[in-house]
Amino acid sequence: MVKDGNYRCTVSVTLAIIGGKWKSLILWHLSFKTLRFSQLQRRLAKVTQKMLTQQLRELEADGLIHREVYAEVPPRVEYSLTELGESVVPILQQMYQWGKDYLERTEGQPVIDCPFG
Fold first, then answer.
1. pLDDT value at position 10?
2. pTM
3. Is the pLDDT of residue 52 over 90?
4. Could you report the per-residue pLDDT of 8-27, keeping only the tens digit for each?
5. How far apart are the first and last CA of the chain?
6. Which ranges of 1-116 would DSSP assign to H, the alpha helix?
7. How buried is 88 (Cβ within 10 angstroms: 0-12 exposed, 13-18 middle, 19+ buried)?
8. Alpha carbon of 1 to those of 38, 41, 97, 117: distances in Å?
9. Is 68 helix (H, G, I), strand (E, B) or coil?
10. pLDDT (tens digit per residue) in 73-93
11. Mean of the per-residue pLDDT values for the chain?
12. How do strand 76-81 and strand 65-70 relate by DSSP bridges?
């Protein structure tokens, strides 16, 4: 949770919230639609259940995602972006475009886009 840190640079705050291997990808996929845990896990094929749970909890604690639990058997849990989470989407879109441009320049050919929602 970012509130526990003592930051001198706002870039550090941003990286603490959305940095790492999975958080940006979680936010990217949620930017297209609300998803269940299992749907997120399929989209992030190499993430462990434990790591996905941890990353989702941190994003929820930082106010970027909303976790909705439905009183059903078995319980259904869905994740979506909050208003604050939506404000990160333009940054993710810029990261997407920069990565695509970078690979096209260094690989010399168009690259396959990452899957959308």
1. 86
2. 0.87
3. yes
4. 788 888 998 999 899 999 99
5. 26
6. 10-18, 23-30, 37-43, 49-61, 83-86, 89-107
7. buried
8. 23, 22, 28, 26
9. strand
10. 888 999 999 999 999 999 999
11. 89
12. antiparallel
CA pair distance 67, 37, nearest whole angstrom: 10
pLDDT bucket at 45, cuts 50 / 70 / 90: confident
The residues pairing with 80 across neighbouring beta strands, listed in sequence order, are: 66
Beta carbons within 8 Å of 61's beta carbon, 6+ residues apart: 1
Structural domains present in the chain: 2-107 (1.10.10.10)
Residue 4 has pLDDT above 90, yes or no: no
* Amino acid letter for position 101: D
> Does residue 35 sit in helix, strand or coil?
strand
The structure tokens 């509130």 sit at 3
Amino acid at 87: S
- Please tell me the total number of residues recorded for the chain in this structure: 117
Concatenating the DSSP letter of every residue in 92-113 gives HHHHHHHHHHHHHHHHSS--PP
Distance of alpha carbon 80 from alpha carbon 70, whole angstroms: 14
